[in-house]
Design goal:
Length: 200
C-alpha cells in the first residue's frame, strides 16, 4: 500500500513538473533529463514510472482533463445556462491566477509535440470541453436566452478562444492581473456576440 502511494505521489510530482516546464519554457524542454534534474533524481528513476515521453504526456493530458471537467462541474451551480457560462469563465481565470500553470497554456504547448497519439488525445479533450460549452449554449437558445441564429459550435470555440488568448497573454506577464476585472470585460464582449444580457 505504501509503495502504491509513493508511486502515485511521484507520478503526480512528475506531471506537475511537466506542466511547469511547458507553461514557462515550452514542450521542447520536456526531456527525461530535465524532469529528473527538477525532481533531483536519476533518469532511471523516471523510467521506472514511465516508459517514454509519450507516456508522461499521456498522463499529463489525463490530469488536465480531470482538472478541466471538475472546474466545469463545480461552476455549473445554477439552472440558468448563461449564468453557468459566466461562472465557468470566471472559474478558469481564477484557476489560471492561482495555479499559474493553467491547463489551456499546457494544452497548446503539448499540441506542438508531433506524436499522433498525443495530438489525437488532446483533440479529443478539446472536443469534450467544447461539447460541454455547446450544450449550455443550446440549452440557452432553447430557453430563449440567446439569439436563435447563433451557431452553437462556433460560439463554443469563441468562448474557449477568449479564455485561451487571455490566459496566454497574461502568462507572459507572470499572471499579474485581477480576475474580476478581466472577467467583466471578456464577459461583456462575449455576450454582445451571442446576444445575451451581460447582467446575468
Amino acid at each position: 500500500m505504501q509503495v502504491r502511494k509513493a508511486t502515485a505521489i511521484r507520478r503526480q510530482q512528475i506531471v506537475d513538473i511537466i506542466r511547469s516546464i511547458i507553461s514557462s519554457r515550452g514542450i521542447e524542454h520536456v526531456t527525461i533529463s530535465e524532469i529528473a534534474g527538477k525532481i533531483g533524481t536519476t533518469k532511471g528513476a523516471i523510467y521506472r514510472h514511465f516508459k517514454s515521453k509519450r507516456d508522461i504526456l499521456s498522463l499529463l493530458i489525463d490530469n488536465i482533463e480531470e482538472t478541466l471537467m471538475e472546474a466545469l462541474d463545480s461552476a455549473m451551480v445554477e439552472n440558468d445556462p448563461i449564468q453557468n457560462l459566466k461562472n465557468i469563465l470566471f472559474a478558469q481565470l481564477i484557476l489560471a491566477k492561482n495555479r499559474r500553470k493553467t491547463s489551456f497554456v499546457v494544452i497548446m504547448g503539448a499540441m506542438q509535440f508531433s506524436d499522433p497519439f498525443i495530438r489525437k488525445k488532446i483533440l479529443k479533450l478539446i472536443q469534450k470541453y467544447l461539447g460541454r460549452i455547446e450544450k449550455l449554449l443550446l440549452n440557452a437558445i432553447g430557453l430563449g436566452l440567446l439569439k436563435r441564429d447563433i451557431d452553437p459550435k462556433m460560439s463554443a470555440i469563441v468562448f474557449m478562444g477568449l479564455i485561451q488568448s487571455t490566459i496566454t497573454v497574461w502568462s507572459y506577464k507572470n499572471f499579474n492581473f485581477v480576475p474580476q476585472k478581466i472577467h467583466t470585460h471578456i464577459w461583456n464582449v462575449y455576450c454582445q456576440g451571442i446576444g445575451a444580457s451581460s447582467d446575468t
